[in-house]
Amino acid sequence: ERELEAIQFLLHKSIPGHEETFYEVSETEIQPGDIVLFPIENLQSLYCLFKHAAVYVGDGEVIHFQGLKDKSSTGWVSKEGFHALKKARGKFQIWRKRGGIKVNEFRARVRQAMNSIAYYDLGTNNCIHFALWLLGLEDF
């Protein structure tokens, strides 16, 4: 079921069991809680479906979750500059949760994530699940 959540978000910008849907916004409209989707560099043939997710936190920064290159189950959460990530990853789309987010809860989750150890699994605990958790829509 968790594998399907990420795929449904990528295909339909919705989440099973939630009425919330997402809509696309431009870079000039970006605000905290917006999900930024980048192509995954090693999957060019699947460019249309699989994306790497980061969440805009404000002040020109994004937070995201990645697996380690050594294929261990450990992942890492990092914050970095949005412009630097755009330069490194290229094209992107920005999606906003319809109805907005609870900013105080979002900021608390960002602080919690920055001080946590997370385990990465491509199907059940990935960057999409992390982004949706930050918005209060998924477990992580």
From TrEMBL:
Highest taxon listed in the record's lineage: Eukaryota
Stored Pfam families: LRAT
Domain LRAT: 42-140
InterPro entries on file: LRAT_dom (IPR007053), Papain-like_cys_pep_sf (IPR038765)
Protein name: LRAT domain-containing protein
Organism listed in the record: Dryobates pubescens (Downy woodpecker)
